[in-house]
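User: I'm preparing a small set of examples for a lab meeting where we compare how different chains pack in three dimensions. I only have the primary sequence for this one, and I'd like the structure in C-alpha cell form so I can line it up with the others. Please keep the answer compact; I'll paste it straight into my notes.
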Amino acid sequence: MSGLPNCPKCNSEYTYEDGMMFVCPECAHEWSKDASADAEDEDTKVVRDAVGNILQDGDTVTIAKDLKIKGSNSVVKVGTKVQNIRLVDGDHDIDGKVPGFGPMGLKSQFVKKVGAEQQV
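Assistant: Understood. Below is the C-alpha cell output for the 120-residue chain.
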C-alpha cells in the first residue's frame, strides 16, 4: 500500500506524485494535493439547525415549529425539548426521544439548539 489516494475520476489505485500534483496513469487525470485534502473534509457531513448552529450527537434541541405527526392527529408543540439527540443519515437527520411521543426522526430544519447563540 502506497498511502496515496485513489483517483477521484476513475478510482484507480495506481496514482503517483508529480511535484505538487497527483496523477492517474489510467485516465490521465491530474489533481492537486490540496484538492485531495479538501475531498476528505467533504466526507464529514455538517448538520445545522434552523438558525445555522452546528449540531452534534448528544446535543439538546427544541422544536421550532408545531409538527404534525403522520398517521395521527397529534402535534408536537413548539418549545418541546429533545435531549441527547443522535445524528443519522437520511431525510430525517436527527433521531431523538420526544417527551410524550417516544422515539422519533426529526429534520434539522425544524429544531433549534438549546443554549447556543447563532454561530453563523
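A couple of notes for your slides: The two ends are 41 Å apart (CA to CA). The first helix runs from residue 33 to 42.

User: Perfect, thanks.
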